[in-house]
Specification:
Number of helices: 2
CATH architecture: 2-Layer Sandwich
Helix content: 25-40%
CATH superfamily: Histidine kinase-like ATPase, C-terminal domain
Mean pLDDT: 84
Strand order of the largest sheet: 1-2-4-3
Length: 94
């Protein structure tokens, strides 16, 4: 099951929260996801082109103004948070 929540922070940032109840990610995958946010030239070995492309595009669009955080949930699955700068939630098209 996947839960998606889109909200706005007190500072006007847009927050996309994606939670799932799957098996979670291996350590190598989590490390690559983290590396992609800070190094757009990084070439992943364990994650797919789609995920890598999304993170790279966010980094190109927002630079250091966005945050991408993925963690394994304590009870299984994964928790993904994407924080984007912005002042109005309605500008976010899904």
């Amino acid at each position: 099951m996947i839960d998606i929540l889109v909200s706005q922070t007190e500072r006007g940032e847009r927050c996309l929260c994606i939670d799932d109840n799957g098996v979670g990610y291996h350590k190598e995958v989590l490390e690559e996801l983290c590396s992609l946010q800070t190094d757009s030239a990084f070439h992943p070995r364990f994650i797919g082109f789609g995920t890598a492309g999304v993170i790279k595009r966010l980094a190109l669009q927002y630079g250091e103004d966005f945050r991408f955080d993925v963690k394994n949930a304590p009870d299984g699955g994964a928790v993904t948070r994407i924080i984007l700068p912005g002042t109005r939630l309605r500008d976010l098209a899904i």
